[in-house]
Design brief:
CATH topology: Rossmann fold
Shape: globular
Helix content: 25-40%
Number of domains: 1
CATH superfamily: NAD(P)-binding Rossmann-like Domain
Strand order of the largest sheet: 3-2-1-4-5-6-10-8-11
Largest sheet: 9 strands, mixed
Strand content: 15-25%
CATH class: Alpha Beta
Order of helices and strands: EHEHEHEHEHHEEEEHEEH
Number of strands: 11
Structural class: alpha/beta
Radius of gyration: 16 Å
Distance between the termini: 22 Å
């Protein structure tokens, strides 16, 4: 299975590409914004394709998705940008990628969302964080409305700690933290396990091995 990783130069994306390299069943195509990002990802065994998620249109993303079997959306505007960038990347970028998957005929789609994207979470979010939750909420709604074979992963508070290989995953779990490396492993596990199609779940650090946790979803 060939996988287009959108946001491949991000912190989760790099881990995803690295895990794909170690997989016997997957190969990575890394979507990047700048040519200078290519060498690191190519060293990880990925083919690279240059697309600006903010500026480029659906057809350009669809061309990048030609020949792949699945798309992972793990792009994000980052914590230090304003609401405008959040909407352009986390909402519009996600929707364009979903629509590009349809154009390219790619059915499998794994979305990295936010821990809680319910209407209640929007209303409870601090003013500075609310645009991010709104963006993720509507990106999730858009994906659910398609006939794509989607999985939506809702990670807890992301850290750069070394992955433990163990998580707690369910439709609802108590809020907690989780290493980005473990979320990347969860993403790859979802790609390799068709039982996650049509499902979404929250993930935090736990005591269950990741593959076992995925099978229990």
């Amino acid at each position: 299975m060939k996988v287009l990783v959108v946001g491949a130069n991000g912190q989760i994306g790099k881990h995803v590409v690295s895990f794909i390299k170690d997989s016997n069943n997957l190969e990575a195509k890394a979507m990047i914004r700048k040519q200078g990002q290519a060498s690191l990802l190519e060293d990880l065994g990925a083919e690279t394709v240059l697309v600006d998620l903010e500026e480029d249109d659906i057809d350009t993303i669809a061309k990048a998705a030609q020949g792949v079997d699945a798309i992972v959306f793990t792009a994000g505007s980052g914590p230090h940008t304003g609401p405008d960038k959040t909407m352009l990347i986390d909402l519009d970028g996600a929707v364009k990628t979903i629509e590009a998957a349809k154009v390219a005929g790619v059915k499998r789609f794994v979305m990295v969302s936010s821990f809680d994207t319910t209407r209640e979470a929007i209303q409870a979010a601090p003013e500075s964080f609310a645009p991010y939750v709104v963006a993720k909420h509507y990106a999730d709604v858009w994906l659910r409305s398609t006939d794509l074979d989607y999985t939506i992963v809702h990670p807890g508070g992301l850290t750069n700690d070394k992955g433990t290989g163990q998580v707690q995953a369910a439709s609802e779990v108590e809020r907690g933290k989780v290493p980005r490396e473990d979320i990347a492993s969860v993403i790859v596990g979802c790609l390799e396990n068709e039982s996650t199609i049509g499902k979404e779940f929250q993930v935090v650090t736990g005591t269950t091995p990741i593959q076992e946790a995925i099978k229990s979803i």
